[in-house]
Hints:
Layout: H1 2-83, H2 87-96, H3 99-110, H4 127-181, H5 187-211
Amino acid sequence: MGNDANIDHNWDRLEVYNTIILAIATLAVAWCSYQGTLWNGAQTFGLAESNKYSRLAQQKLIQSGQNKAMEEAVIINFVDAVLNNNQRKIDYILKGVRPEMARVLSDWLQSHPLDSTSAPRHPMAMPEYEAIMGQRVSESEKMSEKAGEAFTSAQVANLNADRYSLLTVLFSMVLFLEAIMTKFARLNVRVVVTLLSAIICIGGLIVLFFYFPLARLG
């Protein structure tokens, strides 16, 4: 009689352990699914941001090329006016171009390019103009760098989402073991399955809490 009571007590205690493991695994599956969804969202936004900055970088390059082509035409006309000593045309061009371009043309004109051998042969060789071109290229490079950073962030988010998906499978295995455990009639088999479930569950929780980053809303 006492032996039967002891067996019943072991069965009851095992049921309690299984219930605890089942509850923890269920919560872990829900949490991993939630984190995986957040990381997938972070990946989507990261890729969108990367595409945005890549598009802006291309726009900067295209605008720079278009501005350079228009400036070349202006410079050709300006140099022609200087060579022909056409002051009216020179003044007209200086008033019609952008302020930074007008400064480049004025500085080149003040360097006496027709008389001085040390003067730049044309306005595009002026350091000021090279600085303008460098700034345009720099703006495009900054956009490209931001695109690269956003893409890297999206890759990290994708990796984290995959890891959480793997943990979801791991905790789902615990749920599976707990489900089939009830089909075994022998106590020692149930104990083995319970121990295996507990080991897998504890290992997954250690990895989850200490090695996996958290995705946050916003």
